[in-house]
Design brief:
The chain has about 300 residues and is of the alpha/beta class. The protein is built from 7 helices and 13 strands. The strands form 4 sheets. It has a 7-stranded mixed β-sheet with strand order 1-10-9-8-7-2-6. A two-stranded antiparallel sheet has the order 3-5. The longest helix is centred in the last third of the chain and has 22 residues. The protein is globular and about 60 Å long. It starts with about 30 loop residues before the first helix and ends in a 9-residue tail after the last strand. One of its GO terms (molecular function) is carbon-sulfur lyase activity. It holds the Pfam family Alliinase_C.
Length: about 300
Amino acid sequence: MQNAANSAVLVAGWHRMSYRFDDQSFISQELERLIRRLHASTGNAITEGRFILFGAGSTQLINAAVHALSPHNSSAPAKAWLQSLSSRFVPVPAFVSYSIFSFNEEYALEVNFYVWVYQQRTDFFRSVDFQFQGDTSLWKNNSDSTLNLIEVVTAPDNPDGQLNKAVLHGPYVKAIHDHAYYWPHFTAIPAPADEDLMIFTLSKLTGHAGTTFGWALIKDESVYQRRLKYKLLNVLGVSRDTQLRALKLLKLVLEGSGREIFKFSYTTMKNRREKLNNASSVSDRFSIQKIAPQYCTFFQTVRGNLLQLMLG
């Protein structure tokens, strides 16, 4: 246990009782500034010229993004996908369990999931603006260029760690880039992400999943305004107590050089990976997927990917 006292939050009973901050907004301006500093420090995303929107984790933010990108004045709903690497693997950020070993030296992951949260949400709310279509590869060669398409790109992917790129292209194609795991302790940072709509989450940065806090970086103001309206009509905004908790944690992350948490986390996960490698090396039935190392601008060295150790 490290930094227990420095990360503690004490809130008086009379404090933060209003929905809004003193400037009448629903977001902490100081927290927004810290998020911009964080991305500048890690070099994992460009924030200049972007609007920042808070949300209750990446799942809610992605749902709001699909709503904002859908054509509200069209009789044909947009079709939304999650990207997939192969017929065996469907990358979903939220699932119950998976096996990180492959069989017979195939270096492929077999995924067993029980909760496909994006499809369940789409089906449950029965939106007239969009429909969930599953695997991106099913529509990769679609010849109808007039379809409204929305692709969710997981980069890096969980659990295989691949830095995916958008597969679908066209005048009516939009992409949501889920960068929940694009942090230096999980993967090399070859360059800052620079897409139109990017999503990050506190749970994969510091491990505080119970805080359920995330944010989106949005280039287009009209998309930002539609997402903002979605948030206000849905839950009025993110809890001020949640924002205070996130603020405290990010202040601690950025103390000093702003590198300590990433050095500690990377070293811890690297040691676990070495133990896993040693255990699998004595088996003739199991192997671990190999991912080519890349140059990391944060650590300024060539390094491997440690995301395969994440279990959800």
